[in-house]
Amino acid sequence: MKSIIALGTLATVVATPAIAGPYINTEINSGFAGTDYSGSATDLHVGYEGNAGAVNYYIQGGPQLQSSDGEDNTTEFSGKVGGSVAASESVSIYGELALATTDTDTNSYGTKLGLKWAF
Predict the structure, then answer these.
(1) Which of 80, 70, 69 is nearest to 26 (CA)?
(2) How far apart are CA 43 and CA 51, in angstroms?
C-alpha cells in the first residue's frame, strides 16, 4: 500500500505544471532511525502560489494522514507558508513555516531557511 501511495505522489508531482495560481500538493515524509521505521506523515494540501516582483510565495493546507509504526493512524490538519526572493541574478533566499495539529495539546511547528545558487 505504501508503494501505491508513493507512486501516486510521484505521478502528481511530475504532472503538475509550473504556473502561478491554485495547486494541489501531495507529500509524504517518513522517519527512520538507522533502519528502524518510525512513521510517515502524508499531506494532502490545496494551495495558492504567486509572485510580487522578485518575491515568490505560496500558502497551502489540508489534511495530514499520520501513521506511526505500531500505532493507529490519525488525521490532523497541516499547513505551510513560504517563499523566496532573488538576492542576485544567481542566488535566491527561501524560507518556509509549517504546522501540524496533534491529538494532544501540543501542536508541531517547523521552519526552513536556505540559499539557492543557480549555475
Answers:
(1) 80
(2) 24
Residue 88 has what DSSP assignment?
S
Q: Domain residues of the chain, as ranges?
A: 2-117
Give the rounded distance of the alpha carbon of 14 from its chain centre. Answer: 15
Q: Is the pTM of this model over 0.90?
A: no
Q: What is the pLDDT of residues 46-86, one digit of tens each?
A: 999 999 988 999 999 999 999 988 888 999 999 999 999 99
pLDDT-wise least confident of 4-18, 25-39, 64-78: 4-18
Q: Within 10 Å of residue 9's Cβ, how many Cβ atoms?
A: 17
Cell numbers linked to 51? 509572485
Burial status of residue 65 (CB atoms within 10 A of its CB: 0-12, 13-18, 19 or more): middle
